Model the fold of this input.
Amino acid sequence: MTAPSSLLTDLPSDLDASSLPRHVAVIMDGNGRWAQQRQAPRVMGHRKGVDALKALLRCFKDWGIPALTAYAFSTENWGRPLEEVDFLMVLFERVLRAELKELIREDVRIRFVGDRTQLRPSLQSEIAGAMQATAHNQGVQFTVAINYGSREEIVRACRRIALEVQQGNLNPAEIDEKLFAQHLYTHDLEDPDLLIRTSGEQRLSNYLLWQMAYTEQYFTSTLWPDFDRAAFHKALLSYQERHRRFGRL
Ligand code: FPP
Done:
């Protein structure tokens, strides 16, 4: 639930509390370039990226925005150099372990979308533990996409639906958009209202393609580690200037 505006901490006065997005998806791009600009190893950018994500999550709480979904690792990211992939996997695990108490204290519910079966067992168990420990939290709903790809998600949904038909539990005539969405990783999430992609790239990169049919898109040249409260404020101002019609007049 969105907090009443009187309870929101520091919501900038030029933002309308009654028309904030309820669900924001982010593509956290530009970590590597941020590090390279400082002659630092790319992985330093990912570390800073985690700090930016934590700060954003706190802002969601303060400003009463109920849901954040972050693209942490795509099905295509396995193609990166082995040492960067390894670094990211260890980073995810460490961050989950280090931040779990804080997530619980802040009433954040953490969930994951993507094919977790391909992840190392220690990360899988960290993920399962974090989901279980925060399952009843009612504050910000924080979803992390790891080994996520929209096309994989859609094919997986088709396979599951086909199996139900084959087993005689489903009539093809019953397949509609609602039923299809129930077979996606995101079955218990609302569609995003706003997508933010940093670093100047203007692509969806196989992210939430079904779910973002009517999502407003915001692209900024700011690199992810620099995406702070002020940058998010600008994104929200842009969102609030838009007139969402969902195909209607
Ligand atoms: C894209 O920047 C960023 C990633 C592929 C990783 C993002 C992951 C995090 C910020 C960690 C999140 C952690 C948890 C536990 C949710 P890039 O490397 O593509 O940057 P570049 O385009 O400048 O090379």
Observations:
- The domain at 20-151+190-240 is CATH 3.40.1180.10 (Undecaprenyl pyrophosphate synthetase).
